[in-house]
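Async update (no meeting this week)

Hi team, since we skipped the sync, here's where things stand on the single-chain job. The sequence we agreed to prioritize is pasted below, unchanged from the tracker. I ran it this morning and attached the output directly underneath so nobody has to dig for it. Comments welcome in thread, and please keep replies under the output.
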Amino acid sequence: MLAPDTPQTPEAALVTAILMQAYRDLFVSVRTESNASFTTQSDQDQAITFLTDQAGATARHRNALCALIGWDGNVLAARVRAMMDGNTFPPPTPDATPATLERNAAAVVRLRQRWQHLNEPRPKSKRPERSVSNLNAAA
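Output:
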């Protein structure tokens, strides 16, 4: 991991900005409007997926970006998942005001609710009452 006083290359600064934007998107209020200045539910869901997936293309992409700055993407994802499941999220800034901490706590509650919703088992679709082979035989 890069030391805080280590000068970053432009590429490392870009990767860090991408990861930080995904993390920021977890906490901002979701808006229904599609506007560049708002985070939509889809944006937040993508950030959750990007930061928590354990396998697949999104996890590989996160891990590749993390590797460019000396981070282990799997460790990052495990820590974010642990926070989603109840571990403490760090405060937004070291000198956060009580109002900022209150807004952050409310955002954490909303985020965890969304995390639970995204991880609920999906209902299975109903199967047709007659199989395709029965339909062909009836024809």
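Quick observations from my side:
The chain has a mean pLDDT of 86.
The radius of gyration is 20 Å.
Reply here if anything looks off.
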